[in-house]
Amino acid sequence: MPSRLQELFARPGPVFGGWVVGPTDIGPEEFARAGYGYVGFDVQHGYLSDAGAAQLIRRLEHLPIATVVRLPNADAAPIGRVLDAGADGVVIAMVESPDQARAAVAATRYAPSGVRSFGPLRAGLGHDPSELEARVSVFAMIETAQGLGAVEDIAAVPGLTGLYVGPADLAISLGYGLAQAWTEPTVVDAMGRVRAAAEAAGLLSGIHAGDGRIGKAAVAKGFRMITLASESQALRRGATEHLREASGDGPSASTPGGYG
């Protein structure tokens, strides 16, 4: 049976996601209520461990939202834990070579094709190893100059589902500031190269936007998996807007780009 994430991408058009950086039960549920397609749990930059993310994923079993987890590397143990809890996919940060991409794929596959240990925690997942493997989506995050230089070779790794751009780190790695991530032609062209490499290889292209305005621009550039605000950004923006309305003055809230 396909995962919720796979069902979303079986339809045409972009899929928007929220992002969770802390141990909150409310955030993921509110993203689901708002109509977001998926929620990402950040084990790289957030205040979540893989075990904490797994607990939050278990609570979303009956809500109509897909789940992905960003992990800092291709270590098989934490990847296996979040998949055993029912995560639909993993986003592996800082992928810079085909070997790293192959390690990420192997962490989601059982022997003899991978190194994942068998131990599903959610009864609804079943116990067929081939079905458990088939429902997993694997995204390699391209966010450094080195990763960009190898992007076509990374995209050719069997088993990858997609490439996911981290604009903040990509801009820094290319020698620019965070504020230039979406305005500097060199960085914008680099994002386009990642998207083109994904498309040429038959993969999905994803990106960390950080707000709706940039999300709309990402759609125009052809990206399909677009992460908008984190729960902390959404709370800050909503809280600021309520305060502005109550006080009758002050600027509307602006949302920074977030961790990407």
From TrEMBL:
The organism's place on the tree of life at top rank: Bacteria
Pfam families listed in its UniProt record: HpcH_HpaI
GO molecular function, one term: lyase activity
Cytoplasm listed as a keyword: no
Disordered, as annotated region: 239-260
Domain HpcH/HpaI aldolase/citrate lyase: 19-235
Classification via InterPro entries: Aldolase/citrate-lyase_domain, HpcH-HpaI_aldolase, Pyrv/PenolPyrv_kinase-like_dom, Pyrv_kinase-like_dom_sf
Key word Glycoprotein present: no
Keyword annotations: Lyase, Metal-binding
Family statement: Belongs to the HpcH/HpaI aldolase family.
Protein name: Aldolase/citrate lyase family protein
